[in-house]
């Protein structure tokens, strides 16, 4: 880590599923400490791009660079080692374990198993603090709200040395208050150098959180630039190609 190299750089990435060209020559540059919104309508290729960065899908062509290194083949293991963490809507936590156990448990790393209780509690407290959160680490995860579980998933990612966090529609199930809290935590972590790809089609939160915006449509890069070049209206226009946006 460190230096001037972007956290992630995708160059001319393409991916086809059967007759569907999910991605067609897409570029993306995620800088250190950046919150990079990836915006597009349903089916535009957002999740496919994050899965390529995370090593879940192999691109048909194009390059993926992480921390300044061109990776000839990104495997899930390689991505994990490089600090990439994906937070999906169903964040793969353990409802019957406590917050501390969930954070201490590196479920992403088969074979490592559970860490000692005291270490797990300490790691949990530290990573929750980095997110600006006050959640009792002894709370059973299943007793938390969806929003709090989401935050615990992020705390776990950064506790496990994740510093490139790909959030795929993290706010889909959250209320506005919960979204605001999530955005504050993302901001606090970005200030410590954690980089985020933030996928959403809720344009209000996109313009609120993002440093940088990339818009894709039908698998193609439509626009990418600093967030201050975008407002909700322009993003909506770009992602739909001029159709009416429902928001
Ligand atoms: P988004 O996340 O922007 O909604 P996706 O990346 O999930 O879009 O999907 C892009 C396109 O690729 C869609 O047409 C989708 O149906 C297709 N697609 C995605 N994953 C697969 C897959 N594993 N198999 C077949 N088609 C897929
Ligand atoms: Mg998706």
TrEMBL record:
Transmembrane segments: none annotated. Residues 8-243 form the ABC transporter domain. It comes from the Bacteria. This is Simple sugar transport system ATP-binding protein. It comes from Brooklawnia cerclae. The lineage of its organism: Bacteria, Bacillati, Actinomycetota, Actinomycetes, Propionibacteriales. The chain holds residues 22 to 268 of 518 of the full protein.
